[in-house]
Design goal:
By secondary structure, this protein is an alpha+beta fold. Helix content is 48%, strand content 15%. The chain has seven helices and five strands, in the order H-H-E-H-E-E-H-E-E-H-H-H. Strand 4 and strand 5 form a beta hairpin. Helix 2 packs across helix 7, helix 3 runs parallel beside helix 4 and helix 4 runs antiparallel to helix 7.
Protein backbone atom coordinates (compact mmCIF):
# COMPACT_ATOMS: atom_id res chain seq x y z
CA UNK A 1 0.00 0.00 0.00
CA UNK A 2 2.83 2.38 0.79
CA UNK A 3 4.21 1.85 -2.74
CA UNK A 4 0.81 2.68 -4.25
CA UNK A 5 0.52 5.80 -2.10
CA UNK A 6 4.11 6.82 -2.88
CA UNK A 7 3.51 6.55 -6.62
CA UNK A 8 0.27 8.56 -6.36
CA UNK A 9 -1.65 5.92 -8.31
CA UNK A 10 -5.03 7.24 -7.11
CA UNK A 11 -4.09 10.89 -6.86
CA UNK A 12 -1.83 13.23 -4.94
CA UNK A 13 -1.27 12.76 -1.21
CA UNK A 14 -1.36 16.50 -0.68
CA UNK A 15 1.35 17.32 1.82
CA UNK A 16 5.02 16.58 1.07
CA UNK A 17 5.24 15.25 4.62
CA UNK A 18 2.85 12.40 3.67
CA UNK A 19 5.19 11.51 0.80
CA UNK A 20 8.08 11.37 3.28
CA UNK A 21 6.05 9.16 5.65
CA UNK A 22 5.18 6.78 2.80
CA UNK A 23 8.85 6.49 1.94
CA UNK A 24 9.70 5.76 5.60
CA UNK A 25 6.93 3.13 5.86
CA UNK A 26 8.17 1.50 2.65
CA UNK A 27 11.81 1.47 3.78
CA UNK A 28 10.86 0.05 7.19
CA UNK A 29 8.80 -2.69 5.53
CA UNK A 30 11.69 -3.58 3.20
CA UNK A 31 14.09 -3.68 6.16
CA UNK A 32 11.78 -5.99 8.15
CA UNK A 33 11.26 -8.27 5.15
CA UNK A 34 15.02 -8.54 4.68
CA UNK A 35 15.47 -9.29 8.37
CA UNK A 36 12.79 -12.00 8.35
CA UNK A 37 14.30 -13.58 5.22
CA UNK A 38 17.76 -13.61 6.86
CA UNK A 39 16.38 -15.25 10.01
CA UNK A 40 14.53 -17.87 7.94
CA UNK A 41 17.63 -18.58 5.84
CA UNK A 42 19.81 -18.98 8.94
CA UNK A 43 17.19 -21.26 10.53
CA UNK A 44 17.10 -23.45 7.39
CA UNK A 45 20.91 -23.59 7.23
CA UNK A 46 21.29 -24.46 10.93
CA UNK A 47 18.55 -27.12 10.69
CA UNK A 48 20.23 -28.64 7.61
CA UNK A 49 17.12 -27.85 5.53
CA UNK A 50 18.69 -25.36 3.10
CA UNK A 51 18.97 -27.15 -0.22
CA UNK A 52 21.38 -26.00 -2.89
CA UNK A 53 20.00 -25.91 -6.43
CA UNK A 54 23.30 -26.25 -8.28
CA UNK A 55 23.99 -25.40 -11.91
CA UNK A 56 26.76 -23.83 -13.99
CA UNK A 57 27.13 -20.25 -12.70
CA UNK A 58 29.25 -17.40 -14.12
CA UNK A 59 30.75 -15.88 -10.95
CA UNK A 60 31.87 -12.68 -12.73
CA UNK A 61 28.32 -12.15 -14.06
CA UNK A 62 26.75 -12.64 -10.60
CA UNK A 63 29.24 -10.24 -8.97
CA UNK A 64 28.70 -7.59 -11.69
CA UNK A 65 24.89 -7.90 -11.26
CA UNK A 66 25.17 -7.43 -7.49
CA UNK A 67 27.42 -4.41 -8.01
CA UNK A 68 24.79 -2.93 -10.33
CA UNK A 69 22.03 -3.53 -7.73
CA UNK A 70 23.95 -1.79 -4.93
CA UNK A 71 25.65 0.92 -7.01
CA UNK A 72 23.03 3.57 -6.17
CA UNK A 73 23.41 2.94 -2.42
CA UNK A 74 27.20 3.29 -2.71
CA UNK A 75 27.01 6.37 -4.96
CA UNK A 76 24.60 8.12 -2.57
CA UNK A 77 27.32 7.82 0.10
CA UNK A 78 30.10 8.94 -2.25
CA UNK A 79 31.67 5.45 -2.22
CA UNK A 80 33.51 4.25 -5.34
CA UNK A 81 33.37 0.54 -6.20
CA UNK A 82 36.21 -0.76 -8.39
CA UNK A 83 35.78 -3.97 -10.40
CA UNK A 84 38.88 -6.10 -10.96
CA UNK A 85 37.74 -9.19 -12.88
CA UNK A 86 39.81 -11.86 -14.66
CA UNK A 87 38.53 -12.26 -18.21
CA UNK A 88 37.43 -15.56 -19.74
CA UNK A 89 36.59 -17.25 -16.43
CA UNK A 90 34.66 -20.52 -16.91
CA UNK A 91 31.43 -21.18 -15.05
CA UNK A 92 31.55 -22.76 -11.61
CA UNK A 93 29.16 -25.37 -10.21
CA UNK A 94 26.95 -23.79 -7.56
CA UNK A 95 23.60 -22.40 -6.51
CA UNK A 96 23.16 -19.04 -8.26
CA UNK A 97 20.67 -17.67 -5.72
CA UNK A 98 22.99 -18.58 -2.82
CA UNK A 99 26.02 -17.16 -4.65
CA UNK A 100 24.11 -13.94 -5.28
CA UNK A 101 23.14 -13.77 -1.60
CA UNK A 102 26.78 -14.20 -0.53
CA UNK A 103 27.91 -11.36 -2.82
CA UNK A 104 25.04 -9.05 -1.77
CA UNK A 105 25.72 -9.70 1.94
CA UNK A 106 29.45 -9.01 1.61
CA UNK A 107 29.03 -5.93 -0.59
CA UNK A 108 26.19 -4.51 1.55
CA UNK A 109 28.37 -4.89 4.65
CA UNK A 110 31.24 -3.18 2.89
CA UNK A 111 29.03 -0.25 1.87
CA UNK A 112 27.55 -0.01 5.38
CA UNK A 113 30.92 0.25 7.12
CA UNK A 114 32.89 2.26 4.56
CA UNK A 115 32.96 5.99 5.33
CA UNK A 116 31.62 8.67 3.01
CA UNK A 117 33.98 9.02 0.04
CA UNK A 118 35.56 5.60 0.69
CA UNK A 119 36.50 2.88 -1.78
CA UNK A 120 35.59 -0.78 -2.28
CA UNK A 121 37.38 -3.28 -4.53
CA UNK A 122 35.41 -6.21 -5.97
CA UNK A 123 37.71 -8.88 -7.35
CA UNK A 124 37.08 -12.19 -9.11
CA UNK A 125 40.00 -14.31 -10.23
CA UNK A 126 41.93 -17.58 -10.12
CA UNK A 127 43.19 -19.16 -6.91
CA UNK A 128 46.68 -20.68 -6.82
CA UNK A 129 45.10 -24.17 -6.90
CA UNK A 130 43.09 -23.43 -10.08
CA UNK A 131 39.78 -22.57 -8.40
CA UNK A 132 38.04 -19.20 -8.43
CA UNK A 133 37.82 -16.57 -5.72
CA UNK A 134 35.67 -13.56 -4.94
CA UNK A 135 37.16 -10.79 -2.82
CA UNK A 136 35.45 -7.74 -1.33
CA UNK A 137 37.94 -5.27 0.14
CA UNK A 138 37.23 -1.80 1.54
CA UNK A 139 38.87 1.03 3.45
CA UNK A 140 36.15 1.03 6.10
CA UNK A 141 36.35 1.07 9.89
CA UNK A 142 37.60 -2.51 10.16
CA UNK A 143 36.99 -5.17 12.80
CA UNK A 144 39.20 -5.82 15.81
CA UNK A 145 40.89 -9.22 15.42
CA UNK A 146 39.38 -10.52 18.68
CA UNK A 147 35.88 -9.64 17.36
CA UNK A 148 36.16 -11.71 14.14
CA UNK A 149 34.72 -14.88 15.78
CA UNK A 150 31.87 -12.74 17.18
CA UNK A 151 30.85 -11.26 13.79
CA UNK A 152 30.93 -14.74 12.21
CA UNK A 153 28.50 -16.13 14.83
CA UNK A 154 24.72 -15.85 14.31
CA UNK A 155 23.44 -12.49 15.62
CA UNK A 156 26.99 -11.48 16.54
CA UNK A 157 27.95 -7.84 16.09
CA UNK A 158 31.25 -6.10 16.52
CA UNK A 159 31.61 -2.85 18.45
CA UNK A 160 31.68 -0.81 15.19
CA UNK A 161 28.38 -2.37 14.16
CA UNK A 162 26.78 -1.58 17.51
CA UNK A 163 27.88 2.08 17.18
CA UNK A 164 26.64 2.28 13.57
CA UNK A 165 23.38 4.02 12.72
CA UNK A 166 22.69 1.24 10.17
CA UNK A 167 22.52 -1.74 12.51
CA UNK A 168 21.58 -5.12 11.11
CA UNK A 169 20.71 -8.41 12.78
CA UNK A 170 24.25 -9.75 12.66
CA UNK A 171 23.35 -12.46 10.13
CA UNK A 172 24.96 -11.24 6.88
CA UNK A 173 28.44 -12.68 7.44
CA UNK A 174 27.30 -15.94 9.14
CA UNK A 175 24.90 -16.61 6.23
CA UNK A 176 27.62 -15.87 3.66
CA UNK A 177 30.08 -18.16 5.47
CA UNK A 178 27.52 -20.96 5.82
CA UNK A 179 26.53 -20.82 2.14
CA UNK A 180 30.18 -20.89 1.06
CA UNK A 181 30.82 -23.83 3.42
CA UNK A 182 27.83 -25.69 1.93
CA UNK A 183 29.43 -25.30 -1.51
CA UNK A 184 32.70 -26.77 -0.22
CA UNK A 185 34.39 -23.38 -0.50
CA UNK A 186 36.57 -21.45 1.93
CA UNK A 187 35.50 -18.21 3.64
CA UNK A 188 38.26 -15.97 4.96
CA UNK A 189 37.75 -12.70 6.83
CA UNK A 190 40.84 -10.56 7.35
CA UNK A 191 40.51 -7.27 9.16
CA UNK A 192 42.16 -4.93 11.60
CA UNK A 193 40.60 -2.02 13.42
CA UNK A 194 40.65 1.21 11.34
CA UNK A 195 42.15 -0.66 8.36
Amino acid sequence: FSEIMQSGMFGSLGSAKYQEYCHDINQSGAYLLGLINDILDMSRIEAGRYELNEEAVALVHVVADCHHLLKLRATSRGITIHEVFEHGMPRIWGDERATRQVVLNLLSNSIKFTPQGGEIWLKVGWTASGGQYLSVKDNGSGIAEDEIPIVLASFGQGSNSIKSAEQGAGLGLPIAKSLIDMHGGTFTLKSKLRI
